[in-house]
Design brief:
This protein has a six-stranded mixed beta sheet, with helices on both faces. A three-stranded antiparallel beta sheet has the order 1-9-8. The longest helix is centred in the first third of the chain and has 19 residues, at about 20-35. Helix 2 (about 20-35) packs across helix 3. It is of the alpha/beta class and about 180 residues long. The chain has one domain (about 5-175): Rossmann fold, CATH 3.40.50.2020. Strand 5, helix 4 (about 110-120) and strand 6 form a beta-alpha-beta unit. The chain has helices spanning about 5-10, 20-35, 50-60, 110-120, and strands spanning about 15-20, 45-50, 65-75, 85-90, 100-105, 125-135, 150-155, 160, 175-180. Helix content is about 25%, strand content about 30%. It binds inosinic acid and magnesium ion. Magnesium ion binds near residues 47, 50 and 104.
């Protein structure tokens, strides 16, 4: 996609959740996570690239001892069609006996987070929790009824971008959650 096509997609997009509401959701999540994890000494793992903005804005609101790490795993690559998980960077912390909190942009079918959680289990994590900025409500979860432990915003089954979510590599920087016209 070119920069001109990216501008066109934005011009036609529908703003679903404005920045004020996204920030309020992150604030609420930070309170829920603090109640549950303030004494757990967790390793908080941001899933790149989608979790970049969510992780960045959430972490400074978690005012208790924790360690940070990241993984880079992609599912869709540049396309909006699903495929397998592609590991680029695995966690570098020693996860044995640790509580792990995974941070990602979106729970769609859940393939990505389920695969990353499996890997953390294999590495000896004692407990794995997930926080997502957005959850798509539909009946295609990898395990029926799969939920994140902490969910910021629920949306319908649209293709969205902004706040870390990309459309064909663009607009992770958009200051809200936008739906692509017609998707
Ligand atoms: P899942 O494995 O089906 O849950 O897909 C999760 C990953 O797919 C997310 O981390 C995103 O990178 C990507 N994804 C799923 N839905 C969307 C969307 O609506 N917009 C942008 N990326 C998405
Ligand atoms: Mg992602």
């Amino acid at each position: 996609m070119t920069q001109y096509e990216a501008l066109h997609v934005m011009a036609e997009a529908e703003l679903l959740i404005d920045e004020t509401s996204v920030v309020a959701s992150i604030e609420r999540l930070s309170r829920e996570i603090t109640v549950q994890l303030k004494d757990a000494n967790p390793v908080v793992i941001t899933v790149m690239n989608g979790g970049l903005i969510f992780g960045g804005q959430l972490l400074t609101k978690l005012n208790f001892p924790l360690e940070t790490d990241y993984v880079h795993a992609t599912r869709y690559g540049d396309s909006v069609k699903g495929s397998g998980l592609n590991w680029i960077v695995k966690p570098s912390n020693d996860l044995r006996g640790r509580t792990v909190l995974l941070l990602d942009d979106i729970l769609d079918e859940g393939v990505t987070l389920a695969a990353i959680a499996d890997y953390c289990h294999q590495q000896g994590a004692s407990e794995i929790l997930m926080a997502v900025l957005v959850e798509k409500l539909h009946l295609r979860k990898v395990t029926p009824g799969m939920r994140a432990d902490f969910t910021g915003i629920e949306i319908g089954d649209r293709f969205v971008f902004g706040y870390g979510l990309d459309y064909k590599g663009y607009w992770r920087n958009a200051p809200g959650i936008y739906a692509v016209k017609g998707k």
